[in-house]
Amino acid sequence: MKKNLTISAACLINNQGEILLVRKRGTTKFMQPGGKPEAGETALQTIIREIREELGLSFTADELRYDGEWIGPAANEADTMIRASLYSAAFDGELAPLAELEELLWIDPQVALERDDLAPLLRDRVLPLAIERSKK
Predict the structure, then answer these.
(1) Under DSSP, is residue 21 helix (H, G, I), strand (E, B) or coil?
(2) Does 53 score more than 80 pLDDT?
(3) pLDDT (0 to 100) of residue 76
């Protein structure tokens, strides 16, 4: 029986047009910062908290753009589907992985699509959206 998870995820883009990918400790797939809501949290409250916990960044609601929802397979949990609320923001600066993050990577979205270690949400929704926006 498949499990269902609700998450919020962020697409952070720097001044060079690169997207931030993160890898959680003990996993092999790169994804966006984000995670599951705590009791009573909205999707927006979740992503603001997760970005603060994982990256030490403080975003306001006005600084995050809502990019819609995506439903698909989870990257690191077998027989699990996720419903992801997606947000994007600009950020340019130095970061270090915090909380459960082990690795951070800034990469051109088109180059990232060539990797074989991407979460489905990143590969199927976030990177194509980032590439489309970079052409405008």
Answers:
(1) strand
(2) yes
(3) 77
b/e per residue 101-127 (b: at least 16 CB within 10 A): beebebbbbeebeeeeebbbbbbebbb
Asked if residue 19 lies in contact with residue 95, where contact means CB atoms within 8 angstroms, the answer is no
Distance of CA 68 to the CA centre of its chain: 13
Which pLDDT score is estimated for 61?
Answer: 95
This prediction's pTM = 0.90
Q: E strands, the chain, where? A: 3-13, 19-24, 30-31, 34-35, 65-73, 80-90, 101-107
Instruction: Identify the residue whose tokens are 């992801």.
Output: 84
Taking the C-alpha atoms of residue 86 and residue 94, their distance in angstroms, rounded to an integer, is: 23
Give the C-alpha distances (Å, rounded to integers) separating 56 from 49, 52, 59: 10, 4, 10
Whether residue 60 has pLDDT greater than 80: yes
Tokens of 100: 């459960």
For residue 1, pLDDT over 70 is answered with no
Asked if residue 104 lies in contact with residue 21, where contact means CB atoms within 8 angstroms, the answer is: yes
